[in-house]
Amino acid sequence: MLNGVSVFLIGMMGVGKTTIGQLLAQRLNYEFLDTDMFIEQATGQSVSTIFAESGESIFRQLETATLSQVSSRLRKVVATGGGIVVAPDNWSYLKHGVIVWLDLPVEQIQKRLSDDTTRPLLQQQDLGSRLNQLLSERRSRYAQADIHILIQPDETPDQITERVLRAIAQECDRKRQMDEAIQQLNKEMPFQTNAD
Ligand SMILES: Nc1ncnc2c1ncn2[C@@H]1O[C@H](COP(=O)(O)OP(=O)(O)OP(=O)(O)O)[C@@H](O)[C@H]1O
Ligand SMILES: O=C(O)C1=C[C@@H](O)[C@@H](O)[C@H](O)C1
Ligand SMILES: [Mg+2]
């Protein structure tokens, strides 16, 4: 249904981009790629070490460079870092594929990440307020995705993956119908110049 077009998963930390991305790639027979892991392999450093020793700005440059590399490739499911939506330049790369926003209420994210030490932007006392602050800064960017999946609290990774697959199929159908309508209209009403 995708004709090789890649899928980009976006969303806040902890919503399950890496978990769902791996399952989705298996179902689509695509290769799975995670921008955080890609950066860790390329630099030989963990995301936390990059933030601590080089700073967030360098991490964001690594993220954009990674995305520019992977966006030109076909048949990939790409789990992106939670902050990838912030840099406007990154959208020109994301738009090479179908963009899926995995969304989960902050209370659920909080439960999942309460003991996490690997996400540098969350290493502070009040996890709930920090997540709410990041989400309010980013929500309008996430909302630019082609597909929005609001995950239910008890939904399993397999159930979410099924729902994403159905939504991708619907989105591909919608795009195909629109392309056909445009082609039909172009046939019926050939473009006229002022000279006609
Ligand atoms: N549907 C689910 N139900 C319960 N736990 C889940 C589900 N999906 C993911 N998790 C768990 O939540 C945690 C965060 O998931 P994951 O690492 O996939 O999120 P992420 O979106 O990739 O986060 P990040 O943006 O920080 O990389 C993991 O411990 C994972 O096992
Ligand atoms: O939301 C974010 O800004 C981040 C999310 C993670 O995936 C990592 O990319 C990093 O911890 C920053
Ligand atoms: Mg991840």
UniProtKB/TrEMBL annotation:
Record-listed ATP binding positions: G14, V15, G16, K17, T18, T19, R119
Pathway this chain belongs to: Metabolic intermediate biosynthesis; chorismate biosynthesis; chorismate from D-erythrose 4-phosphate and phosphoenolpyruvate: step 5/7
Gene Ontology MF terms: ATP binding; magnesium ion binding; shikimate kinase activity
Enzyme Commission (EC) number: 2.7.1.71
Localization per Swiss-Prot or TrEMBL: Cytoplasm
Gene Ontology CC: cytosol
Primary residence: cytoplasm
Catalyzed reactions per annotation: shikimate + ATP = 3-phosphoshikimate + ADP + H(+)
InterPro entries per record: P-loop_NTPase, Shikimate/glucono_kinase, Shikimate_kinase/TSH1, Shikimate_kinase_CS
Pfam families attached to this UniProt entry: SKI
Binding sites annotated in the UniProt record for Mg(2+): T18
Comment on bound cofactor: Binds 1 Mg(2+) ion per subunit.
Keyword Iron-sulfur carried by entry: no
PROSITE patterns in alphabetical order: SHIKIMATE_KINASE
Domain of life: Bacteria
The protein's required cofactors: Mg(2+)
Binding site for substrate: D36, R60, G82, R138
Keywords on record: Amino-acid biosynthesis, Aromatic amino acid biosynthesis, ATP-binding, Cytoplasm, Kinase, Magnesium, Metal-binding, Nucleotide-binding, Transferase
GO biological process: amino acid biosynthetic process; aromatic amino acid family biosynthetic process; chorismate biosynthetic process
Assigned protein family: Belongs to the shikimate kinase family.
The protein's assembly and partners: Monomer.
Entry function: Catalyzes the specific phosphorylation of the 3-hydroxyl group of shikimic acid using ATP as a cosubstrate.
Protein name, UniProt field: Shikimate kinase
Species of origin: Leptolyngbya boryana NIES-2135
Organism placement in taxonomy: Bacteria, Bacillati, Cyanobacteriota, Cyanophyceae, Leptolyngbyales
